[in-house]
Design goal:
The protein is α+β, with helices and mostly antiparallel strands. Helix content is about 35%, strand content about 30%. β1, α1 and β2 form a beta-alpha-beta unit. The chain is globular and about 65 Å long. The protein starts with a strand and ends in a 13-residue tail after the last helix. It binds flavin-adenine dinucleotide. Flavin-adenine dinucleotide (FAD) binds next to α1, β2, β3, β12 and α7.
Length: about 400
């Protein structure tokens, strides 16, 4: 007899969403995590992820006032390289969508997800999961408070340094980029018209994403030394730098929000599920913040895990592990490769890579059907959606 059907380790957005989904489907669920840390990031969530929030009955709700819709996405070649690409604009109306998605501050999303998970009956345990051992039809999870709980399946949502992944004996391939990403937000005197702009610069993308009224969030990828210098600036100095990088397109920059720098890494777990442990979110895959893929993929992990667990008599069976592994690797690995290539083409400044980037962006610019294909698969992937992400 196990204590819970599912134990989720980690209360980041992936773990909270997974726990709430399981509980909504009647799966007895516990979530083990330390108290949350402050996070100034916002996340651009595309339609399938928004549908998941709707399915959990938290969208739009209280999030409505703190988010802004994303109607257009622009990519601008700002490298000054020998071979530059034409600027590319994706319009949600080309896919007959009113919007691609919404930009949500994490410090607003996390409490809403947590509250909903609690309402749905998730048992929260404030501790870290330190070890796990699969035995017969159960997995036994050791906690930092010296207790142990058992479950049919453990969902490892404990981030890039996942202890549950290590406990399951899953190796990783990881690498680092000579970059850090600064996340912050700012006000501007001119409107953003619900357009997110990714300026491709030689140290990486500089991306503005709309927030309500005349405010945007920023993900600024830079070389580590320059990122450290930017983080150390006072608000006035940093606002002036942002002004320069946006070429004045948003008018005067002011009123900066909290900021944090994230070292840029990539990671892929060699298996996404093994011995009653299912990896979701950054425990399975870490990508640089290009094209808003990270959490969108993570929520899809959570929704597929819910589908498979519900369809199986034994939530942690070998069949569940195999199906999850196959389905998620097929989607995640090509996306990771593409993001990596896009990032390296900017960073390395190698002519063949720059040429390939310029050529592929030009092709997208000029070939309508290809552009729509990329939008459907990259920005609004609607194929083979798990149940909670299908439009009602
Ligand atoms: C600058 C930046 C901007 C981004 N913007 C976007 C975007 O616009 N759109 C998008 O889709 N994605 C975006 N991402 C990616 C997205 O933020 C991540 O994919 C997402 O936050 C990962 O969530 P997670 O729940 O997997 O991991 P985390 O948020 O890292 O959560 C892991 C949790 O596990 C807990 N934990 C750790 N160890 C243990 C343990 N042993 N036991 C229990 N709990 C543990 C931690 O305390 C933490 O709360 C961005 C990333 C960056 C860096």
């Amino acid at each position: 007899m196990v204590d819970f059907t599912a134990v989720v380790a980690g209360a980041g957005p992936a773990g909270l969403a997974a726990a709430a989904l399981f509980a909504k489907e009647g799966v007895t669920t516990s979530l083990v995590a330390p108290a949350p840390a402050e996070d100034p990031r916002t996340v651009a969530l595309m339609q399938p992820s928004i549908q998941l929030l709707r399915y959990l009955d938290i969208w739009p709700g209280s999030l409505e006032g703190v988010t802004a819709p994303l109607r257009k996405l622009r990519m601008i070649d700002d490298t000054g390289a020998l071979l530059t690409a034409p600027s590319l604009e994706f319009d949600s109306q080309e896919l007959n969508l009113e919007v691609f998605g919404w930009n949500i501050p994490l410090d607003q999303l996390l409490p809403v997800l947590r509250k909903r998970a609690e309402e749905l009956g998730v048992i929260f345990i404030e501790a870290t999961a330190t070890n796990a051992k699969s035995e017969g039809d159960a997995i036994h999870i050791s906690l930092s408070n010296a207790s142990e709980i058992s479950a049919s399946v453990c969902i490892a949502a404990d981030g890039a340094n996942s202890a549950m992944r290590t406990a399951a004996g899953i190796a990783t391939d990881s690498w680092s980029y000579d970059q850090a990403a600064i996340a912050t937000s700012f006000s501007h005197s001119m409107g953003h018209h619900n357009v997110s702009t990714e300026y491709h610069k030689s140290a990486g993308p500089f991306t503005t994403v709309p927030l309500p009224e005349n405010r945007s969030s920023l993900v600024w990828m830079e070389r580590p030394a320059r990122a450290a210098a930017l983080i150390a600036m006072n608000d006035k100095e940093l606002a002036a730098e942002i002004q320069i990088e946006t070429h004045g397109e948003l008018g005067l920059i002011s009123n900066l929000g909290p900021r944090k720098s994230f070292p840029m890494k990539g990671l892929t777990a060699r298996q996404f599920a093994k011995e009653r442990v299912i990896l979701i979110g950054e425990a399975a895959h870490v990508v640089p913040p290009i094209g808003a893929q990270g959490l969108n993929m993570s929520l899809r992990d959570a929704a597929l895990a819910a589908d498979l667990i519900l369809a199986s008599k034994d939530a942690g069976s070998g069949g569940v592990m195999a199906d999850y592994n196959a389905a998620r690797r097929a989607e995640v690995l090509p996306r990771q490769k593409l993001i990596d290539l896009m990032n390296k083409s900017l960073l390395l400044g190698l002519l063949p890579l720059e040429g390939a980037r310029a050529l592929s962006l030009s092709t997208l610019h000029y070939v309508g059907p290809l552009k729509r294909f990329v939008m459907q698969h990259g920005l609004s992937p609607m194929h083979n959606l798990p149940f909670a992400m299908r439009a009602s």
